[in-house]
């Protein structure tokens, strides 16, 4: 069974800070391991659409384009005690399905919320005895069609509804995204993922992070990147190299793009921890 979300954050932070400390004295190594990573994060700007910030002003806020409709379905994996972003959609009469097995109930309710107290997993760690988990493809193959067919709240949706996918599942994003079938990924209009343990991933052969980026970049375009200042970072010559990064994507089939600016610091970005300066990097 999963530990609580808070315990996971603390454990990861302790482990990753030890790793970051080891690299802090070798700045050239840090810049080198991030070089290929940043190449995969080429930011482009959507044509005729502006990014907007939804949710909290700090941790729990996301950058998405303001292109929402009642035929969107928001799917949120990992919510903890903050549903500000989900409330934004619910108040626009957009249905929201939330999954988080680390909590038994959500901190705020809304008639357009559907909450399932299960954690999301890829197929590699899922076992029948782990009743708090659900395999990610089952969400799209079984749970969503069932809700559309049986729940009157979902009557505005059709079988081709476009998904808005929000993922913050404390390191389990890698196996989940790699296991996600491409037919469901291709229906995601917008995606935001918080990637954890960056230093570990960038120093591991056959990195799951790089594999995830390769997979997502085939169907989606990066439009925003932000370093999470809760996760630890190394500061080198005016740039911060973080261990946790938030990335926003748009579906390449639904949008057109022009060249953007590769930076953590979109004007709408805000520090996750408002007591600390926001992280900065341009590449």
Q: In words, what does this structure look like?
A:
- With 283 residues, the protein is of the alpha/beta class.
- It has one domain: Rossmann fold, CATH 3.40.50.
- 29% of the residues lie in helices and 26% in strands.
- The protein contains 8 helices and 15 strands.
- The strands form 5 sheets. It has a 7-stranded mixed β-sheet with strand order 6-5-4-9-10-14-11, with helices on both faces. It has a two-stranded antiparallel ribbon with strand order 1-15. Strands 2-3 form a two-stranded antiparallel ribbon.
- Helix 5 (173-179) crosses helix 8 (208-219).
- The chain starts with a helix and ends in a 24-residue tail after the last strand.
- The mean pLDDT is 89.
Please render the helix and strand layout as text.
Blueprint: H1 5-24, H2 27-39, E1 44-46, E2 51-55, E3 61-65, E4 72-77, H3 84-90, E5 95-99, E6 113-116, E7 119-121, E8 133-135, H4 136-150, E9 162-167, H5 173-179, H6 182-185, E10 188-195, H7 198-202, H8 208-219, E11 220-227, E12 233-236, E13 239-242, E14 245-251, E15 257-259
